[in-house]
Every structure is written in C-alpha cells, then in structure tokens.
C-alpha cells in the first residue's frame, strides 16, 4: 500500500481502531462461538417454514399440479413468477463480486461474501419451480441433452426453456466456484484457530493446504480475476435468457425487445434489495457494524435508486412502444394492466418499484438503517408483483374472449412460495454459522488505506 493516496473526503470503510488481529477475531467469532438467542429464533421460524415447503411440495407431487390455482388459460402463474423472482435475486451477488472486483471497488469487500452466498441459495430456490412444475420431477433429467435409451426423446434446442437450463446451470456453477475460491484463505484462518481435531480436519480439507505464501496469493488473485471475467457476462446473459421465455412468444405484453435489458436492470434492483435485507440483519446479529457500515448501506442504496429509475424508464418505454406499434392487442394488454381486474397488482408494482426508490435522493433517508430495511422489503415485494403482472395479466386476456378467465392462488401456491423463503433463510443461517460471512482476508488488504484510525493518522500527519 506504500505510495497509495486516498482523498480525505472518502469515508472509512472499517470503523474503530482495528488491527489485523481484531479483524480475525471479529469475523471468526460468529463461527466459533455458540449461536445466540436471535439466531435460534430466526432459524426455528425458517425451519418450520421449510417443513411447510416440504409438505406442500409432497402434496403437489403426490396429487398433481391441479392443486395449484392454474387453469386452461392461465397455465403459468405463481410458479414461474417465483422462478423469475428468485433468479433475479440471485443476480446481485455475482454483480457485487465480479463487476465491482474488476472496477477495483473496495467497498465490495465487506459485502461480497454474503452476496455470493445469497446468489447460490436464491438460484437453488429458483431451480425448484421448473422441476415441480413438470409434474413428474423424477424425470427432471429429461431437460438435459443427454443420450438416452427411451426412444426418440430429445430436448428441443429451439425452446427458450432449454436455454434456461444451460444459462442457469452455468451461472450456478461459476458462482459456486467463485464463492468457494474466495473462501479458501478464510477456511485456512479457521483451520489454524480450530481446537477440536475434527473441526481442524474439515477446515484443513476445505482450505486445500493454503499456507498464505506469496505464490498462493498470486494464484488466488489471478484465479479471482479470471473467474470475475467469466462471471461478468453471465450476470447479463442469465436474466436476458430468462426474459426470452416471454419475449420469443407471441402473447401480447410479452413479445417485446425491451425485455432483456429490462429484466437485467430489474434483477440487479431486486438483488441489491435482498442483499440490503440480509446484511442489515447480519450486521446486527453478528455484531459487524464496524465492517458493514453506513457507507456500505448508502452506496447500495444509490445502486437501488439508479436501477429503480432504469426500471421506471423501462415501464414507460413499454407503454410508448405499445401505443406506437398500432397493434390493438398490444395496446389493450397494457391498458388492461392499468385498469383491468389485476390493476391493484399493477399499481402496487409501480408504487414499490418506481416511486419508493426516489426517496433515496435524500441523504438522511438513504443513511437510515430502519428506512433502508423497510424500503428493501418494499422493493422485493414490488419486484415480485412485477413478475406477477407480466405473467398473469398477459395470460388471463388472450386473443379469444371466450377463453378469458381469472386467477386465484391456492394455499399450496402460497405455501410453496413462503416455504422457499424459509428454505432460503435456513441455508443462509447455516452458512452464517459455518463460514465467515465477511471476507476477512480481503478486508485486511484495505485496512491501511481505508481503516478509520489509519485515515486519522494520515490526516494528522499529512501523509499521502
């Protein structure tokens, strides 16, 4: 870090008079000590919800997807809404890690680990829905283009649903490797501190013999950059391909070229909101206020505000394109969204996604923890409504008025959706008890340039 200059106006990213040892102690504490009361309460609630998911999924598989609220006209509803919503949430993790790493943004170091974990757990939830929707999940491997002995059965390479399989499985694989590589120095730290032989053995295997040598660090940084380079286009490709599920069809309201960038912006928007939700809870429960600071929260709020504005522009563009196209079916689809039977969902979407992020223009609000938490929840709700509006309002009024109908979810629809939230939090809470949720090795690299005490010393002595 010699010769590094940082402007005095930059806010410290590590608060308190922290030393390298303090960082190790603070980050390892949630893993090494017994779980607190708050963790057990949260885990119990999440686990009960997870059991509810198992019950609803078992009932669906045993009875058939007729137990959902689907009908002949609206044959995609909550399942595909939830699928797209969870894929979107999975976006911010890789974005924070990969894109911000390539841009050398230091503020990513306190939040990237949890964001990467969130990505993996969210994609797992997303993957459940296509499998359940098949009705015969034990034949789920049919989606893969593998040689088989069942006759002439082969996947349809022209189908965007198959493109989903390739895109999401690739994204999950790269994200998983990226996450794991970043954890190796932290596993080694836990290995060196472990007192129990079995714990030491587990972390020793996980750390791949990491010794902290210069050669190890050199390879670690090179691999991280290569994976970041691979993962960055995936961030943009995955949700673009998910949008093709709709954009390549001929349904009014779906057949539009704006969907790829619109879906990507929406995914980043909802992903950052979920990262905010998780980190605000994690910093309090794990006592990480000195590492996940107001500065981190404010910067993420700025990203939410910008992407929320992009999403708002996309909504308006859709309306203009529908009007300008002169196609009556397109015009009716968008008029029906705003004034039809599901107008309540449309206006909930607009309120949550377009109007509410604009409060972040005010510094007092975007640096408020309680308001940020509230707004992050609102954004997540709004983005779920966005997917619901796109899917259900376009399907329930098709080309034939004789087939027009409504849609109402059953308790199984609701149970599976809420159950996946419980499953997500079960995975996240177990992760928080097993792995360091902040990348301590990376954090130490910015202590001298962005630590509060070091910045004070530099300001006092006028060192550059």
Key attributes of the depicted protein:
single chain; 464 residues; mainly alpha; 69% helix; globular
- Count, helices: 18
Largest sheet: none
Report Rg. Answer: 24 Å
The backbone outline, from C-alpha atoms, is globular
| Chain oligomer state | single chain
Indicate the topology.
Elements: H1 20-32, H2 37-63, H3 78-89, H4 91-102, H5 112-133, H6 160-193, H7 197-206, H8 214-247, H9 259-285, H10 294-325, H11 328-339, H12 343-355, H13 363-366, H14 369-395, H15 411-434, H16 440-444, H17 447-450, H18 452-461
Task: Please characterize this protein's 3D structure.
This protein has 18 helices and no strands. The protein is an all-alpha fold. The relative contact order is 0.18. The longest helix has 34 residues.
Task: Describe this structure in a few short sentences.
The protein has helices at 20-32, 37-63, 78-89, 91-102, 112-133, 160-193, 197-206, 214-247, 259-285, 294-325, 328-339, 343-355, 363-366, 369-395, 411-434, 440-444, 447-450, 452-461. By secondary structure, the chain is mainly α.
